[in-house]
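Q: My collaborator sent me two sequences in one message, no labels, and asked for predicted structures for both. Can we handle them in order? The first one she listed is below.
A: Yes, handling them in the order given. First sequence, followed by its structure tokens:
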Amino acid sequence: MTIVDTPERRQLRELTRAFVTREVLPHLADWERAGEVPRQLHATAAKTGLLGIGFPEAVGGSGGDLLDSIIVTEEIIRSGGSSGLVAALFTHGIALPHMVAAAGAGSGGKLPRRPDAPGSVDPTGREHDLIDRYVRPTLAGSMIGALAITEPDGGSDVAGIRTHARLDGDHYVVNGAKTYITSGVRADFVTTAVRTGVPGSGTLSLLVIDKGTPGFTVGRRLEKLGWHCSDTAELSFVDVRVPVANRIGEEDTGFLAIMQQFAAERLSLATQAYAIAQRCVELAVSWCRDRSTFGRPLASRQLVRHRLAEMHTRAEAARAYVHQVAARVAAGEPVVTEVAMAKNVAVSAADRVVDQALQLHGGFGYLRDAEVERHYRDARILGIGGGTTEIMNEIIAKGMGL
């Protein structure tokens, strides 16, 4: 038994596997062709208790922590789901945490007294209002949220964001554009990074912008190499009036809020990477046992066995390291460098393993009928999203004092 292998977490794995088997596998191919998952899936996942994993019960979640979220992600993929499904169904994992943190929901699952309670110094109750208006409905599966940071002329350079929000009375007037926004087509609201002052990291803020607000338009649905069941969009803001009440936290604190949530996002992507690797090892082993060439199963050949052994080693090593780093993050340790290393280790393992798994499947692996083909496409984004491999290496180098 380990910190990620307790009786309670084994039950969580079983619950996740049953959900995938019952609610996902019969429909995943159709969702891939449709380019999105149905809204009803969010409600079903919420009723099952999976949608709110990792969020405090005080804000409508199911409780648990980062490790529980990792287990759900891992098991979805190892049960035959996809990382695209994870991206589509759990986009709130990057859209909501800033609101929860601003409201002061701690690891004990409690919210502090509402700021508009007697004796409070903040009569607005703004953060608590955001919890009621956005967090609870999203975790109940009745709303979908997205996070909008990336812009057309910049990706990992968060400090260089140009989308601007000018204060005008009790509203901000927002102008700018965002791109590569996961769930941007279906989202009911978007947690949006905006500039509220002069250029620089110290003048970024976060605003919650509702779909349907005049001037806020969802542009074209972006066609992608992978993650086909996860919709991705371009967003445009032209003189969009957003109430000050929709600001998350204090003005000009957005950069720190974004940075504080990057660890969980990067570890989620790392989990998707090693889980894809594990699943592809399982698929390759099964194929090589059943597939015969020249009168012998592929698995009987030393070259194939050794290749499978190397694939298995890479996947398991990545899993062990990601779990170790995730446990430290869950314990509150500031392990920025280690998170970057965990992401790169897992992505490297996935890149190598999915390539070898498809090769072992031969011509069948190149067909859309093969699950390994989907994983091959889906894995490619993991070294880009949440900070590219190159950005992770820069973080690692700084951690080394270089």
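Q: And the one she listed second?
A: Here it is, processed independently of the first:
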Amino acid sequence: MPTITEVRPIHVNRILYVSVETDDGLYGLGESGAWAYQEATAEVVKTFAEYLVGQDPRKIEHHWQFMYRAYHFRGAVIMGALSAIDIALWDLAGKRLGVPVHELLGGAARERVRVYKHVAGATVDELVEDCKGAQSEGYTAVGHLSPFLDIDRNESLESSNAQYISEAVNVLKTLRAEVGDGLDLCVELHRRLSISESITFAHAVADVMPMFIEDPVRPDNFDSMTHVASSVPVPVATGERLHTPEEFQMLLSRYPLAYTRISVCLAGGITGAMKIAAIAESVGSKVVPHNPLSPVSTAACLQVSSAVSNLGIMELPDHSGVSATERYTASADGKRQEFDQTAMLSPIPAAAGGYAPVPSGPGLGIELDFKLADRIPVTRVETLSRLGADGAVVDQ
């Protein structure tokens, strides 16, 4: 019987990996999605390690239930730790059997995985240029697309009004006119709007035919989100901030949202993601894995995306520099630690013609250069919320 000998958090820049090692010389690699709170998550990993060391790594479901149900508490930090460990255990299982993880999940449900590329711009012209660049690379969809544009979080926002909404609507109309109908637009609203503003916005952009609008309101209240979804003529996506199967069940039982965003590295790892995907499938909702992290997250998301029958599309960030969470949340370029993720991880999952191949290597199919990772300094995420013109906190 193989035995777990070490469970080790590995903190790199703003990324938290977890390595689970066994007495037969193998290791599995996972990543936490609680990206703003990795120091706290690492401590939870150490707590779980006290249980896991000496255990059989093949009992993945049992370990998931043991950690998930051990005490009274839930939360993103706890689930980020559980998720990273779970992904590492699946990686180990695939490596031990010499097969990709998706074969252990029932086999590939498709031959390739459709992905959307991250786009951004501080101006309309920059956003148009980025979208056209994605088209030239063969992508048929783009995402992380903010019609409010990407500006520094230290810049305050005016209170929402007709001009605020109409300018965002015009950004999407301009984009559609520039790129044509061959590019799907996955619109990221980042909780910017109220219920009434969301409904107004969605009706105004219906003729742009967005693939979906994501998180138009804060996802904390399921009733608010489903009220918007049931009141608008465009598909709505949400779920990236949820972290238990029960939350998704309660959300989707209120209204079958078109797209369910699963954070594989936050919502229970591969085990949790498959549970949530089944809940979504039961109400006709398509899965869109949330993936703003490193190539380890991409590798885990690809395994899930390959196996589920109800995949909508998968998020794919640019891995040639720092993670997307750092690019989009650091307050200024000078506070971003530039390093090439491709230097410490290989092979990097990539797309061609708007699709990523179904993984074929054992486990996740990705390896970490531990020595290089150990040399990259840890960066603590600063607490930074955007303020409105009146000084009150607004969502971003």
